[in-house]
Each structure stands twice: as structure tokens, then as C-alpha cells.
Amino acid sequence: MSPSETDAGTGPDASSADCIFCAIVAGTIPSRQVYADEAAVAFLDINGWHRGHTLVIPRRHVADLVSGEPTLPAIAPAIDAVARLLKDRLAPDGFNVLSSAGPVAGQTVFHAHVHVIPRYADQPGFTHLVDPSEVPAAELDAVWAEITGGTA
Fold this sequence. Notes:
HIT-like_sf, single chain, catalytic activity, HIT family, subunit A, alpha+beta, 5-stranded antiparallel β-sheet
């Protein structure tokens, strides 16, 4: 399943009832979860741009990081923990950490999320940041097992 702007739960006015990320938090849609705490859940992006591309999302539904009550302070510890976990397990050469707010910024799933993207020396810089192709399930499974030790 690949979220797009035409999917339920992805429009700017999406509610938690039809939000794909809320369903992941609830466990009704499977994910390759790599981290969770009381405020956030993190899982591999099925359309990851680089090996280990992970999304960190708040457990509560909020459209983006600049709408409603501040969300970034609550999920910042999870972002930090995920980046350190990926650094330890995947040994990338660098990271990009980013979030988009609103359709004009490129947001396509309207539940706040932060991309933690490991970067590797063979594809440096912004010109090599985005590769929008879907990641094969076997590759996601292999990366998930490497990060988590194969445990849920």
C-alpha cells in the first residue's frame, strides 16, 4: 500500500477516523515498527528514499507540526532515539531529518511525521535525496531485521 493524495486519510482535512497513520498507531494496518514510546511510533517508510528511511509520527492525530498544539517537543526524544538507533545499526555516513507541512510543501499524508533518512557516501547531497520508488517488501524486511534484531 502506497499512500497518495487520493487515498482516504491523506487530504488536508483528514480526520483521525480515516487517517492511515492513525491506523498504523492502532495496529490495524501493519508496519515495520523500529521504535515506540508513549508519544510516538517510528516505522520504515514503504516509499523510502534511502536504506533505513524511517517515519516518526505522534501517537495523537495532528495534521502537521505547525498546526494545533505543539507536537515537535513531544516527539523530539523519539526522533533522537531513532536517529541514534539507525546510526548504530546501519552505519550511515550522514542523515537528513525533515518534515513537510501542507500540500505546497509536499505533504501527502496529513498526520504529522518526521522523516529520518540515513544517507550514504555513494549518493551524497540534496540532488540524491529523493528516490520516490516503492521499496520491495523483502528489502524492507531485511532492513527492519537489521535495525530491530528481527524482533517486534
